[in-house]
Amino acid sequence: MPIKTLLGRGAWWRQFFKALLLVSLLVSPLTGCGRRPDPYGQQVSRALDAGLRGQELLGEGQTRRAERSFSRALDLHAGIDHPAGIARQLNNLGAAALAREDLTQAADLFRQALFLNQQLGYTAEAALNLANLATVAHKGGDLSQADRYLQEARELAGRAGSLRLRGQILCQMAGLALDKNDPGTAAALLAEAEPAQKEPAVRGPWFYQQGRLHLIRGDFLTARDFFHQALEADRAVLNRPGMGADLQALSQVAAGQGDFDQAFLYASRAFRLYAATQSWTKARQCLETLRHLNQNGKLGQNLELFEKQVAAAQAAGTCPPPPPAPTPGASPPPAAGKK
How many CA atoms are closer than 13 Å to the CA of 281, on its beta-carbon side? Predict the structure, then answer.
């Protein structure tokens, strides 16, 4: 299941991107009535159940509990020497570490998964690991390394014949191109990805990056339509990080059109979604956006509830400390994008 990689359109709105937080999915093997017990298959099934539970918890923002489920699944796979399952859970643990903003641990786990999948000859799974490593590099500010990972991931996804994965990677590449202020390359990548947007998991990222592309071109109305379609598509597959970024993008469009009330509404919805899923770094960034809109639009909104939620999360140690105060004359912090 992935993510929009959480530019170039104004100092405080930069660094949207819809990163792919891809957590691999497998279904439990079916067993017919009357079959003899299969001890090995039963253990694989238990491991898959633990992994699926971890995915549910990660989607709800319960990262630590998700990690416990992924670790349980990893132990079960290791206990029966199931290397494909081991690689899958290493990738899942990497996704959880990435959700905690632990880039070093995430990169290490994704590399371990990549090594196993390369040795096993699993090209689609290796492409997924590379896309996740690109997300880590992107978040760490190394756009050149992110591009190299994505180029390799794109090639592997093509060889694997996975339309869905290739479409997701192309959308991630388009987001990276927009981060580099290269709309021409982004447009070409999105055109290449268009056949894959019939896949439910690709529709949200594709519409979102199209919205970004039109926004950078100054076409607010078309951008707004694409962001609405992205929100609908992400909601359909319950891509919560994607939904948050869609709402932030809609807030940006409304603010660009001078409709600060509507912009505040979208940003507040994004804040509540991030708070509900314990994505406190993004929630705090949304709070900065709300402050900015409240002040610039002279809205007179009471931000006390938002402030208290962030303060409580910081007191509990679940919200990282805020960045240093900007120097005088510096631009407001950028709006958060998709992970």
Answer: 16
